[in-house]
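hey can u check if this looks right to u? its 317 residues, i copy pasted from the old doc so theres a chance i mangled smth
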Amino acid sequence: NCKFHRSIEHPTTSRVLAAMFANERHFAHHPALPAVAQFGDEGAANHTRFCRDYGEPGVEFFVYGRSAFDSRYPAPQKYPARQTLEASQAVARLHGLSDDGVVYAQQNPAVIDQGVFHNDVIAVGNAEVLFHHQDAFLDSDAVLGQLQAKLASKGGHFQAIAVPRAAVTVEDAVRSYLFNSQLLSRNDGSMLLVVPEECRNNERVWAYLGQLTAQGGPVKEVKVFDLKQSMQNGGGPACLRLRVALQESELAAVNPGVIMSAPLYATLLQWVDKHYRDRLVEADLADPQLLLECRTALDELTQILQLGSVYPFQRQP
């Protein structure tokens, strides 16, 4: 509800997810929250799950920017806070989460006003590790203490890596998208941080990352990728961060048409070559033929992925 493109995407996205994870023995899909400002919800961009192992009980970490109903919570003055406490609580409640496995934290309003519109622009977590900026949260000590205590009750050992503002400013973090990264577990138990090229181009950020991998903590390696097109559209590696951890029986219950394989990859390349225009100008947006091309391409794609009729034009009588 805070952004128009968000408000219109969830019906189709819901049908896609339902077609991918259709086996009700293993999967449940919840409808979107009411589309009102009080339940502003930006999903995985403001949520992290900490655990000792992906298949074990863990702690769900919800970060919000404001409270819809309680004026005692401070709010940003320049930019909107797109995630509410009430939305986070509603998601936890609808998912049947227990209080001993949930931590709520308010994002620092001052960093929102510096362009940190989502928590994933100022923090990233994986397994037992939270990599975050010193100024990411209000009352950081209390937040980190709750995460440590609740993860310990699940048998885990919480580790927080706070990036000091003296080394990397909030402006540096926003410009480089240092925290809009992927934090991945390696087979040896250490972690790999996947960052965009902009991190290497920022002198202070790159110097800090060199120190990070040398200091003997959980992050042992940094990989850099050129994601210029994605970055210019407002997204870095974090846009691929939403992960669904599956056991073998659960993976077997996923729609096989969406599982990447060499043959599927080759088919998708052919689909792109067939349907993508090599140029698009403003006048094309008024051409009905473009609409027909898009619908033809999407109809063929849903058949390739065995999704059925998920787009509105496919469902019209």
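The chain has twelve helices and nine strands.
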